[in-house]
């Protein structure tokens, strides 16, 4: 069972963030918002994504959701944190495979790319999916080994 979900959004995705927070709470899950922080002055997506990804890596939350205009910038930053796998997804199949095949703990979505209803469907699929291991396990392990080389 999931403990907590972290969420972070920049100003381009603040409306979608509010919708997603309500959606997650309606599922009975706890959600922690990293969109604004007392430790930084600005609402820049690199700061938000890095702070959320670092919290995921440290085990503070089970999973994280990042939202910006396209989902691209947030994903790039989150993937800079060793041990964190963030997948940018704009369809339910990619969200499912991000978990089942790649064990992605973080998902990024673009508020200017998809609408709220599709965002909720994508997040539902991602939350319901678990890493299957199998033939994907050695590949995910290889990703971790590459991270250690940096």
From TrEMBL:
- Which molecular-function annotation in GO is an example for this chain? intramolecular oxidoreductase activity, interconverting aldoses and ketoses
Q: From the UniProt record, give one GO term of the biological process aspect.
A: carbohydrate metabolic process
Q: Does the keyword Isomerase apply?
A: yes
Record keywords, A-Z: Isomerase
Q: Which InterPro entries match?
A: RpiB (IPR004785), RpiB_LacA_LacB (IPR003500), RpiB_LacA_LacB_sf (IPR036569), SPI_LacAB/RpiB (IPR051812)
Coiled coil region boundaries: none
Pfam families, alphabetized:
LacAB_rpiB (PF02502)
Return the PANTHER family for the record: RIBOSE 5-PHOSPHATE ISOMERASE, RIBOSE 5-PHOSPHATE ISOMERASE-RELATED
Q: What is this protein called?
A: Ribose 5-phosphate isomerase B
Q: Which organism is it from?
A: Thorsellia anophelis DSM 18579
